């Protein structure tokens, strides 16, 4: 059993899957309570009803950031779009595969997703992974590796991607600022997006006139894309 678990972690594969909730979760912003130090938060819109499955977006922060910062990117849009947001802290200053290989962050994300699926009714066709900066790189990497779970990937200003495998056919939204000096667009998204398209992925790519950030119009465009895409999913 230990060997199987280790293989699962190092290959970046997640085991958590949506199921019929066995607990009752409440609306609002809540800590996950899974770790005493680096933990995470979940935001559930006021309109959530357990009898109707909801969309879920897993949010990943940038280097040196935290779950609250990742949550802030989309939280003001969660209620109007009736989408549950789950944000987790990386175990160290940034995500495992960026520092070495898949491992502790995959395990913690699996734990956070399992808890969420236990408490909330989640639509299996409307689960996305999203992130900014290093979080966007990790969202691409984990999302492509787990495309059977994440049908949609949202990457705000990614630097690279390092999927352990290509599973499923997730659709992607990628944005990047043309004046980004942290992760310059020419060596990041302008290289990443053509590689994704050549691999057969459906990618919506948006550049904007700005620095290393996520403007309001890009945030809204990403959520509208996600909701329109999932509305068309059988």
Describe this structure as you would to a colleague.
Helices cover 34% and strands 21% of the residues. It has seven helices and eight strands, in the order αβββαβααβαββαβα. The chain has helices at 2-10, 67-78, 96-99, 104-119, 134-145, 189-198, 216-231; strands at 28-31, 40-44, 54-60, 84-88, 122-132, 152-156, 171-177, 203-208. It has an eight-stranded mixed β-sheet with strand order 1-2-4-3-5-6-7-8, with helices on both faces. The longest helix is centred in the middle third of the chain and has 16 residues, at 104-119. The chain is globular, with a radius of gyration of 16 Å.
Short description:
With 234 residues, the chain is an alpha/beta fold. The chain is 34% helix and 21% strand.
List keywords for this structure.
alpha/beta, 234 residues
What's the SSE blueprint?
Blueprint: H1 2-10, E1 28-31, E2 40-44, E3 54-60, H2 67-78, E4 84-88, H3 96-99, H4 104-119, E5 122-132, H5 134-145, E6 152-156, E7 171-177, H6 189-198, E8 203-208, H7 216-231
Parallel strand pairs: 3-4, 3-5, 5-6, 6-7, 7-8
Antiparallel strand pairs: 1-2, 2-4
């Amino acid at each position: 059993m230990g060997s199987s678990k280790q293989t699962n972690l190092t290959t970046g594969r997640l085991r958590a899957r949506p199921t019929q909730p066995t607990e009752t979760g409440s609306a609002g912003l809540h800590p996950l309570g899974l770790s005493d130090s680096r933990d995470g938060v979940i935001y559930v819109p006021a309109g959530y009803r357990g009898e109707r499955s909801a969309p879920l977006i897993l949010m990943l922060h940038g280097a040196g950031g935290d779950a609250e910062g990742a949550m802030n990117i989309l939280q003001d849009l969660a209620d109007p779009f009736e989408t549950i947001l789950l944000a987790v802290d990386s175990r160290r200053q940034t995500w495992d595969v960026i520092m070495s290989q898949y491992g502790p962050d995959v395990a913690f994300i699996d734990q956070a997703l399992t808890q969420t699926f236990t408490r909330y009714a989640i639509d299996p066709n409307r689960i996305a992974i999203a992130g900014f900066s290093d979080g966007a790189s990790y969202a691409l990497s984990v999302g492509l590796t787990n495309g059977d779970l994440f049908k949609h990937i949202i990457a705000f200003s990614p630097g690279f991607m390092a999927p352990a495998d290509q599973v499923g056919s997730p659709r992607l939204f990628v944005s990047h600022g043309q004046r980004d000096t942290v992760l310059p667009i020419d060596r990041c998204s302008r290289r990443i997006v053509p590689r994704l398209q050549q691999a057969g992925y459906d990618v919506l790519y948006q550049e904007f006139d700005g620095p290393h950030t996520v403007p309001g119009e890009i945030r809204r465009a990403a959520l509208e894309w996600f909701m329109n895409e999932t509305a068309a999913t059988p």
